[in-house]
Structures are given as C-alpha cells and as structure tokens.
Amino acid sequence: MKALSDELMKTLAQEYLTRLGIVNTQFAIVKHTDREHLHMHIVANMVDNEGKAISDSWIGLRGKKIAQQLTREYKLIPALEKNSKRAHVEALNEAEAVKYQIYEAISQNLPLSRSFEELQNRLLKRGIETQYKYKGKTDEIQGISFKKGNTILKVVKLTVNIPIRTFLRHWSTGIGRHRKSKSQ
C-alpha cells in the first residue's frame, strides 16, 4: 500500500478528472484531515476553458467506478462505508459537527423505531425536529429534513450509510399519515 503523499494525491485527482472527462478546465484539490484517513475533495469548473459545458451525465456513478478503479490500481484502502465514529469531529466546523450528531442519532434510533412517528419522537428527545417539504400547495410530501438548532440535514444526505429502502420503510409507516398544517 502506498503512502498518500501530497504528490500522489495530486496525481490521483488529475487521473480521476481525466477519466471522468473533466479536462481543460479549472479545478481545486483539497486535502482533508478531519478523519483518521487522509482523503481529498475535488471542485471543478464544469465549463471548459473554451466556454463549452462539460457533461455531467451520470457523473456520480461514473465517478464512483473510477474511484474504485484507482483504489485498486494504486492499492489504496477502499472507503466501504461512512464510519462517523472514525471522524475527527473536533476538526469540523459547528454546522458539520451538528450534522454528524443528527446522523448519529438517526443511525442509532432508526433500527429501534417501529414507525416513523416513533423515530420522530426519539429524535425530538435529542433536540432534533423533523421538517417536511411539500409539493406545491398540496399535502403530498416531497422531501424530509432534520433540524437541530440552525443546522438542517436532508434525508438524501443520510443514504450514504442508511439504505434508502430502510429509511423509506420507516417513512411510509408514519409519514403518510402526516398532513400539512396551516402553520407550515
């Protein structure tokens, strides 16, 4: 296994972008040390230097496959799942630390809850409220978020480690009965 030097991280990032088809554009590579393992984040301008849009079609899936290929080729340790216990929460800003608290509370309470209403009550005891996003002016729930203080975490952000099917199973048992009140 190779040590992750700055130079190797730069090489990996450039190879990743090239394979993804993000070339001839501006990008930034940020080395992160908020966890026990070094990792990086890449931000790229999706308009190339000639002013043409760079395709982002299926970028998430393509990016994941490319990252897995590079991990094998360079004999790196794969990130198989989100393990927030290994995160250096003290290195996070306040909002990110609260998101981890919300994530942890949901991870711990979801398996113990027989209904979505029970999950909501368990989270409320930890100071986490559930918020709903409605489709237009209808009663149809389009999305759900969890809020603690001024920090909000959308359900889509939980699905890294909590399978969406598991969440939706709990969601459907109680959330369908929730209706928009006039105050929302």
* Arrangement of strands in the largest sheet: 3-4-5
Q: Averaged pLDDT, please?
A: 77
Could you state the order of secondary-structure elements as H and E?
A: HEEHHHEEEH
Total beta strand runs: 5
Task: Name the shape in a single word.
Answer: extended
Please identify the structural class as seen in this structure: alpha+beta
Strand content: 15-25%
| Largest sheet descriptor | 3 strands, antiparallel
Q: List unreliable stretches of 5+ residues.
A: 157-161, 173-179
Report the radius of gyration as a whole number of Å. 20 Å
Helicity range: 25-40%
Number of helices: 5
Report, as a whole number of angstroms, the end-to-end distance.
Answer: 53 Å
Provide the fold topology:
Blueprint: H1 6-20, E1 27-32, E2 39-44, H2 59-73, H3 94-109, H4 116-124, E3 129-134, E4 141-148, E5 151-154, H5 164-174
Antiparallel strand pairs: 1-2, 3-4, 4-5
Helix pairs in contact: 1-2, 4-5
